[in-house]
Design brief:
Structural class: alpha+beta
Shape: globular
Order of helices and strands: EEHEEHHEEEHEEEEHEEEEH
Oligomer: single chain
Strand content: 25-35%
Radius of gyration: 19 Å
Helix content: 25-40%
Length: 274
Amino acid sequence: MRVWVNGAIRPGAEAQIPALDHGFTVGDGVFETMKVVSGRPFALRRHLDRLTTSARGLGLPDPDLDIVRRAVDETLAGNAGPGVGRLRITYTAGPAPLGSERGRGTTTLVVAVGPVTTWPDAEQVAVVPWARNERSAVAGLKTTSYAENVVALAHAHQRGATEALFADTKGRLSEGTGSNIFVVVEGRLLTPSLACGCLPGVTRALVLEWCGGDEVELPLSVLHEADEVFLTSSTRDIVPVRRIDTHDVPEAGGPVTMRARRIFAERSSADIDP
């Protein structure tokens, strides 16, 4: 694979950023991941809007979206082939002294592609013992500081699950490490409010727009009360949940989930950049 770094496309093994880049040393950066469909990124406009929002939340300069779009086009053109299914844009504060203080240099922009993850037809998830801090300075931002997600996902994998779920500090259902969650209770499609610290997912937003549903504050116990549960993310679209820890979801892949999957497939295939 070839990677775009600060204006140049290079083979992946030769693509480099400075060792003192603040995105590398302290995770001072933001990113977006999207699926690639027939050589084109899905929902690019929405992802770039969120990239800008995340950058502002960190206090970074707004990314130049004309440059980002050109980088995306050049990266996809340089990596044509069936193995390309995922595209990632990473934008960091650039080189800086060691420690938390930022430098005064230019930002770093990297665009890379790779194969898309193959998800199971229905997932098993694990609730982790750590909380998502809804009052964090970076709550709701898609930053490169992903260490707690790495730890949580490893915890889930050790228990045979494909995703980990967080509650927030108040015990409300929040999100997964790389996904948003929806539940169906008495026929109602519900998803945690952004006040619970979850990321405003692009797929989450499209499901709410296209399929209806309500954003509400949900107790963690809803996972044992819901008739259906599903995850959304840019590489998953919509995947049913069949098991939560030792609890089997009563209607994994039930009618509300299947309706949402059908609508999402139809609408997303009709518009590459909704």
